[in-house]
Amino acid sequence: MKMNIRQIQLALELYRTGSINKTAKNLYQSPPNISNAIRSLEEELGYQIFIRTKKGVCPTEIGMKFFIIANNILEQYQELLNIPETERTARFRLATVCNTPRSAYLRLCRQYCNFSRIEFSMNSASFEKMTEQVALLQSDIGIALLNNQNLNSYRSLLKHKMIQIKELCQIPFCITIGSTHPYFQQEHISPEDMQDFTFVDYSDNAVATDINIINRYNINMNRRIIIEDQLSRLELVASAPVFIIGCQISSSLLKQYNLRSFPIAEIELKLCSFLRRDIPKSKEVQQFLMYLDEDLREFT
Q: Residues 245-300: pLDDT tens digits?
């Protein structure tokens, strides 16, 4: 059996996850199939690219050389596939109720920026507006955070609109503060600790409204600053003793702005995708979901 692109993709995925079970889940295969495929690949190569341990797998020294070359092969393979693709119109319309998919969207934009015709948009919307856009085919995909209580009711509500809801990942709900905040060095903080500090919010905070965060924790609405742009909110939090309540911010942004996030244990949110069940996923949607899945591994 000659080595093929699928084997290389599988080996790289296992290298990224370090786990046969996670790789099987990500690629929608069984763990024995993954093990057998890697064994066949190593037999064909004539050397071992992974070491099996109790905690998972890790690359051998020669395996690292293999993965560097394999990654280059996949990038060149994708370029070959994209030669005729660049002549078609690339279209991707995202409606989102949260900032979580921002990084995946930017990665998708970078991938398609050389196409001769591009129609890309990321629209921040309320939950109702997002589902309406997906139902009317004005958006190719919707992304939102839902709590467990509302997830099932929304499934029933949207079924007649031909919208399928898929749970992607559980996202921590957090208080985020900067280094100038007096509680920055605390081991734990709660929403009640924030009652004497200014709350930085945005005008259509659907997630906070959905779980009644304001009334639930008696947030002082007389001390509330509205900033619509996420990065501007983070800049303020980094430079003043204020706070944000919302879904977990990526580790890269926390590091960039010198922030800390403190999970609120009693709140669980699910990041979900919304797609028309009768419309096949476009290549752009599939690629976006792959990028989003890679980003979400930070939370799993």
A: 888 888 888 999 999 999 988 777 889 999 998 889 999 999 999 999 988 887 66
Residues 6+ positions from 141 with CB-CB distance below 8 Å: 93, 94, 95, 134, 273, 274, 275, 285, 288, 289
143, 94 Cβ separation under 8 angstroms: yes
Contacts of residue 218, defined as CB under 8 A and 6 or more positions apart, other chains included, come to 192, 195
Give 194's DSSP letter. G
Q: What are 25-30's contacts with CB under 8 Å, separation 24+?
A: 26/293
Tens digits of residue pLDDT in 166-210: 999 888 888 999 999 999 999 999 888 998 999 998 776 555 555
Beta bridge partners of 58: 51
Helix H or strand E encompassing 230: helix 230-239
Indicate the pairing of strand 198-201 with strand 117-124: unpaired
